[in-house]
């Protein structure tokens, strides 16, 4: 039996827009879009991992609001994605820059969510994120 490896993602919102990050690596993911985040390290809580990943990937601090319902299998056996809604607390949207594994960021309004080519495993997470956001706005 394969141990599950938890990957956390952020539905990072600012001014009603969701942040999408375009992968620059690895090659088979490059050019596709995802919610920023990464793997949970051994002994780390998922929420701690997500805050750490946002600092490493984007150089920002974020406040986690709540977990988006659902869990989604990723392209590698044993990997699963969980997503938390979050908001920026240390920067304005214009100050957010890709630092690792991404070459472009976009802040998407609700009607622009499907204007980018999301990775397959992020699509159901984005759908649930949109439902979560619509229910609160």
Automatic annotation (TrEMBL):
CDD domains: NUDIX_MutT_NudA_like. It catalyses: 8-oxo-dGTP + H2O = 8-oxo-dGMP + diphosphate + H(+). The keyword Hydrolase applies. It is an enzyme of class 3 (hydrolase). One of its GO terms (molecular function) is hydrolase activity. Keywords: DNA damage, DNA repair, DNA replication, Hydrolase, Magnesium, Metal-binding, Mutator protein. InterPro entries: MutT-like, Nudix_hydrolase, NUDIX_hydrolase-like_dom_sf, NUDIX_hydrolase_CS, NUDIX_hydrolase_dom. Its cofactor is Mg(2+). Its EC number is 3.6.1.55. Pfam families: NUDIX. Residues 3-132 form the Nudix hydrolase domain. It comes from the Bacteria. Belongs to the Nudix hydrolase family. This is 8-oxo-dGTP diphosphatase.
